[in-house]
User: Fold this.
Amino acid sequence: MAVLGAVYSPKQYELYIGIEQSVFGTAEDTASDFVKLDVASVGDIDWAGGLTVDRTLRTGQQVKKPADHYSTQKGGTWSMPFEWVVSNEEGLQKLLQLVTEDTSPHVSVARTGSQSALTYGFHGEAANSATATVIISNPYAAEDRVLTSAVVQDLTLSMDAGTAGGRLVASGTFWTGYTPTIGANTVTPSGTTTSYVKGLYNCTTKNFGAAGSELDLVARSFSYTISNPATRLGYQGSAGDPETYSRSGEYVANGTMQVKYDAQSKPALTALHVDGDGTASGKERSINFGDGSAINFDLLQVVVTGFTKNMDEEAGVFVDITFDSVALAGEAVHTLIFT
Assistant:
């Protein structure tokens, strides 16, 4: 048999995402619900993570037989990392919806300390708009991948003067408890997209400090990560897919910013050493980073968790400040605006 002459370019792959509108455990197939994430490159699913294997050597033999190798995808979970230089509002809003469980898509996303995890219902019940169908479109059509009822386990929004021209970059991990489908997929995204090209240089406000007395900083980068892990519960069907999901663990939001070391940034470092708990009279501080309308990170309660000085001979001394976002009862962990 002769070899095949077809050569597929990595640039022919595409990544589509659509919020599920029908039932939990059923892939979305309405083209208008999908948008394309025009990432620089598309990776594949982590297949090993969803594969359970066993290699049992039986007595009476010293070499494994073919039957001693067992593998199954039942009960598995699958993930796929992504990194996207943000280019449209709708894609970014969907990612935020999937990680924060804010099921009302809009340009401002808030999460309070008193918010409970969503109930995902059982397989076959109405979807709650917190899951998505993710499609990896393959130039070899028979090898398209479809992730059903996926969530975003973690999402990092970062801006760096030395990366992508300072533009906003979204990176994270898609996750599902449903066995991915491999085969030709007919969805072609037709959802409305609105151009969104914002980043570090649009952030005219870079404030840190005690509430009411924040100080202006000279910033070189800013990064914010939201982590909201999901786990599958139970099993059903011939594929052993989940009965439901749970996201009852800790919702974590933290970040880091690199700023010039000076008299304005020094109080951020000092905040790490303040005695007391995370209250206004103790360690609690406030960060406002953005322009207040088109791109903004409003973090009313943060606790500094560390800092590292960078001795840059050309630019001077900078410092990386790490922080956790916290909240009490109905206070907002964060309010994020992207429009």
The longest strand covers residues 295-312. The chain has one domain: 12-47+70-234+250-338. The radius of gyration is 23 Å. The chain has two helices and 20 strands.
